Amino acid sequence: MTADVHTLSGAYALDALSPEEAAEFRSHLEGCAACRDEVRELRRAAALMGAAEAEPPPPELKARVLAAADRTPQQPPRLDLRPRERGAQPRRWRTWVAAAAAAVVVAGGAAVTVDALRDDEPVPTAVEQVFEAEDARTATVETANGGRLTVGVSPSRNEMAVDTSGLPDPGEGRVYQIWAVHGTEMVSAAVLDDVEAGAAMGMPEEDTEVALTVEPAGGSEQPTSAPIVQVDPRDV
Amino acid sequence: MGSEPGLRLVHAREPADVDVLVGQVALGDSAAFEQLYDEVGSMVYGVARRVVRDPARAEDVTQEVFLDVWRKAPGFDLERGSAKTWIMTIAHRRAVDAVRRNEAQKKYDEHAGVPDEVHHDAADDRLIAAEEHGAVRDCLETLTALQLESVRLAYFNGYTYPEVATLLDKPLPTIKTRMRDGLIRLRDCLETPR
Ligand SMILES: [Zn+2]
Questions:
Q1: How far apart are CA A28 and CA A41, in angstroms?
Q2: Is A71 an interface residue toward B (CB < 8 Å)?
Q3: ipTM of the complex
Q4: What pTM was computed for the model?
Q5: Is residue B35 over pLDDT 90?
Q6: Which domains does chain B have, with CATH numbers?
């Protein structure tokens, strides 16, 4: 790319780059904090320009949208880790799963493909942000099914992440699921649709460990198999 | 990548309603999703309508946008920008993708006289009600003619910057630069206390 690649930020914020150029500019963004900041601000300005065109949609659209959402699974939700603890502020266990499999829903007689947007994904991903933090510490552990799990923690970000790319394929119709383990309680933190993507989350409270199990596709309410690995992020 | 001081600081600010709603949607709250639709549905539909023109396709785009928001809300991070900007960024991207899939519409637009389209005309004022919207209108007027045309042809007509350069018969680097400094001027104007 040429030296004035930074000046593409305006065209990028307006979605006016070809797919190839947009991809190139996104790689540039990964290493250029100034452009990331600028894109964020210019997108905000563009969003306000778009918002100024507000126009009420036809009333019947609302029911159609709500019904379609009803049939559409969400990425794993953030969870209150210890919702039953009295007197304590519910604490959010924030998870981000960088990529999700495409879902197809049929609505209003038309098939709508809902795939991951190219542009609104984190740059870099939340997982990368943890592993690349200046104070990041990592540890790699063997799993019971013959894979490797790398855990990263960043005290300054108060976040942790798991790199699951070293895990074997969970098998047909199976997924890996991440759990927060506190005493005898296990709470789902994320279902890994894509082992390459890994997951990042807020650092759990003390006495909370992180476990991985293999579950039927879609994940389980409670683990249906023994963890293949369990780690205390504070030991990393 | 090194850390970027200041970039990820969480500012002590009261989140706007849309931010709160998206946080609830992230937890699977479908009542909050319905409220969110009521809150930003006309912005999403409005920008889709403006970009794709055809009302039926604008409805399809609107539905795609809200399904994206529903699915991806759990991964939304307020530290990267407001929920409203996030939603409008998805909306614009989806609308532009829809237009680019349909070359016929583009040709129609070209023949329909795009240059007229990029100047303000009073008929468009039907849309402007809220104070913020008036601010956008006022601030757009601070752009030079070329900045304004470049920004609007890209944003509202879905043209890439090389296409805009051809339409306006200007060199590529000029258009690229006008898009950027036009948006910067818009941003600065919008951030100025009024
Ligand atoms: Zn740059």
A1: 17
A2: no
A3: 0.81
A4: 0.59
A5: yes
A6: 18-108 (1.10.1740.10), 122-191 (1.10.10.10)
